[in-house]
Write a structure and sequence with these properties.
six-stranded mixed β-sheet; single chain; Rossmann fold; alpha/beta; ABC transporter transmembrane region fold; 16 strands
């Protein structure tokens, strides 16, 4: 009998609750589950009953003294056995097909719930977790669930049914031989517990060592240029050798115990087979049983011990999958981004008397629709007036990033933020978008507290160009259109020209229809940034946020887009974060931040005249991090 391949696994914390939720997802396939269960019972029953037919088959050709062989009974029993085995094949196909439908459908529903809920999670969730950690829910954990639903649970159920059925028949055939089987089974289980337990501990160490080795390899691949620049190849090799040796040692011990378990269990199984044959022969000589009982019983030994091994294997698999399911449900149970806003952004038109009215058509003129408690509704023109009033904020408790920040940006003004890393520049833009809500102070947008504005409407009125651009798999045209999904091809081209991206796009193999993959890996960093700017341009928002938007663009390319950027920023409220102070000289106001506070405000000339921190930064006495 082959022994179980033991490996370490993480046990679920709430097995009952997790199982209940999984069954809830599977409830849509009740009929499939009933049919599958019938198939499992039928398959196990066919195996047990077909084996029992060995008794009349043997006895029919080896009758008692003085009797003739009964060939008719022999033929009938063989044909019946063939029919039963054929039915078992049908039942096996039936439950496998049903469980395949159940598993694929259940996992589809889980993935849909995960992905949809992920869209509603706050930015804080993604800031506090690695991409790999989140992706493992969709890959490793879902794959473990697939194995459990399509193979683990059916095989576990089938094995349990078969063990119970075989045990009952063995007990009916010969209680003496059954006691002998139970005694040897106790010895086998003790061996599995001792040897398998040691193997499991080493498999856990092996999994950890694999993670360390893979992480080290990935880090060295990404940092290969740095390794070569500093000639650290020998040190890197030594680091890899030590980690690889730890993996070898853990894997060697894990597989040593796992591999010796198989021959031990096999030899114990053969010993049991021989003992049953010997004891059975003695019982047959004494007239307690016939030869047919011995033949059937020896076959039942295989059918009894093998499913027990499978139960051990599948139980580990099920527990691993349940732990993965807990992580999936943990993502689904994450509190979604709260939004108590009730002010919405609507298409508007100006009436003859000068008042604003809501329009059911796209007018290109926007207004904030503000319902009041007295039942009245007011409309405020979307202009892009942004004001911070004594705002204090920290991403973590007891770690303040902004302290009593007060600032304003009038419609059409270009406001620049400068300061060292960690001064709070990007945090301000995150608060404008309501990626995070402020606990103290207020932020007003066109005179309205942004906490009253629905987040989706607030973000529709803004456009951002980030330092780390992200391009989706698709054509260049589709990536630009991401800023305005209903934009025409003409608007896409116009936005590209505005960002001075049209020239390089037309030189691509298929122009605007060139497919971008791997986050635009077939483009230069500057070209990717130009597409991000074009995406913001097509959105045509009243407020524009440029977070290091030109940091990845060389001086020549920056000069090319400067005119286009000026056109894009014209008439809009613009917030600029830049390390190159040359890019903010024409700002209407420059705010210098230090340790979360605004220490200076003014235009370029006024700040130079003050000879304060900005003067020191601009003249090179201090450098921006």
């Amino acid at each position: 009998m082959p022994g179980p391949r033991t490996r370490g696994y993480e046990k679920p914390k709430d097995l009952k609750g997790t199982l209940k939720r999984i069954l809830g997802y599977m409830s849509a396939y009740r009929v499939h589950l009933i049919v599958a269960f019938i198939g499992i019972i039928g398959n196990a029953g066919a195996t047990v009953s077909a084996t029992y037919l060995l008794r009349p088959i043997i006895n029919s050709i080896n009758p008692k003294a003085g009797e003739e062989p009964d060939w008719n009974k022999f033929t009938a029993s063989v044909l019946l056995m063939a029919v039963i085995y054929l039915c078992g094949v049908v039942f096996s196909y039936l439950y496998s097909r049903m469980m395949l439908t159940v598993s694929t459908g259940t996992l589809k529903r889980m993935r849909v719930d995960m992905f949809r809920h992920m869209q509603d999670l706050p930015i804080r969730y993604f800031d506090t977790r690695t991409h790999g950690e989140i992706m493992s829910r969709y890959t490793n954990d879902i794959d473990a669930m697939r194995e459990m639903l399509s193979q683990g649970i059916p095989q576990l159920t089938s094995s349990i049914v078969q063990v119970v059925g075989v045990f009952c028949v063995m007990l009916w055939l010969s209680w003496q031989l059954t006691l002998l089987v139970l005694a040897m089974l106790f010895v086998m289980l003790r061996v599995v517990k001792v040897v398998g337990g040691r193997s499991a501990n080493y498999f856990i160490k092996q999994q950890r060592a694999i993670g360390v080795v893979n992480g080290y390899i990935e880090e060295m691949i990404e940092g290969q240029k740095v390794v070569k620049v500093f000639c650290h190849e020998p040190a890197v090799n030594a680091g890899f050798d030590s980690r690889n040796e730890e993996l070898r040692d853990a894997a060697s011990n894990a597989h040593t115990f796992a591999n010796i378990l198989m021959p031990i269990m096999g030899n114990l199984s053969h010993t049991l087979f021989a003992l049953v044959a010997a004891v059975g022969a003695g019982l047959a000589i004494g007239g307690w049983i016939d030869l047919g009982v011995i033949a059937s019983f020896l076959q039942y030994i295989r059918q009894f011990t093998n499913p027990i091994t499978q139960i051990s294997q599948q139980l580990n698999s099920v527990l691993m999958a349940m732990a993965g399911a807990e992580r999936i449900f943990a993502l689904i149970d994450e509190p979604p981004e709260t939004d108590e806003g009730y002010v919405t952004l609507v298409n508007a038109r100006r009436a003859p008397d000068g008042s604003l009215q809501e329009s059911d058509r796209r007018t290109g003129f926007w207004a904030w629709k503000h319902p009041h408690e007295d039942g009245t509704t007011t409309y405020t023109e979307l202009k892009g007036d942004v004001r911070f009033e004594d705002v204090t904020f920290g991403y973590e408790e007891n770690k303040t990033v902004l302290r009593d920040v007060t600032l304003y940006a009038k419609p059409g003004q270009k406001i620049a933020f400068v300061g060292s890393t960690g001064a709070g520049k990007t945090t301000i833009t995150n608060l404008i978008n309501r990626f995070y809500d402020v606990p103290d102070g207020k932020i007003r947008y066109d005179g309205i507290n942004i906490n009253k504005i629905k987040k989706a409407d607030l973000r529709r009125s803004l456009a951002m160009v980030l330092q780390d651009t992200h391009l989706f798999t698709g054509t260049v045209r589709e990536n630009i259109r991401y800023g305005k999904l209903d934009a025409t091809d003409e608007e896409v081209v116009a936005a590209a020209k505005l960002a001075n991206a049209d020239a390089f796009i037309r030189h691509l193999p298929q122009g605007y229809d060139t497919v971008l993959t791997s986050d635009g890996a077939n483009l230069s960093q500057g070209q990717r940034q130009l597409l991000a700017i074009a995406r913001a341009a097509i959105a045509d928002p009243p407020v524009l946020i440029l977070d290091e938007a030109t940091s990845s663009i060389d001086t020549r390319t920056e000069a090319l887009i400067e005119k286009g950027m000026d056109t894009l920023m014209q008439g809009r409220t613009v917030f600029v974060i830049a390390h190159r102070l040359s890019t903010v000289r024409n700002a209407d106001a420059i705010l210098v931040l230090e340790h979360g506070s605004v220490i200076e405000r003014g235009n370029h000339d006024a700040l130079l005249a003050q000879k304060g921190k900005y003067y020191q930064l601009y003249t090179g006495m201090f450098e921006l991090d």
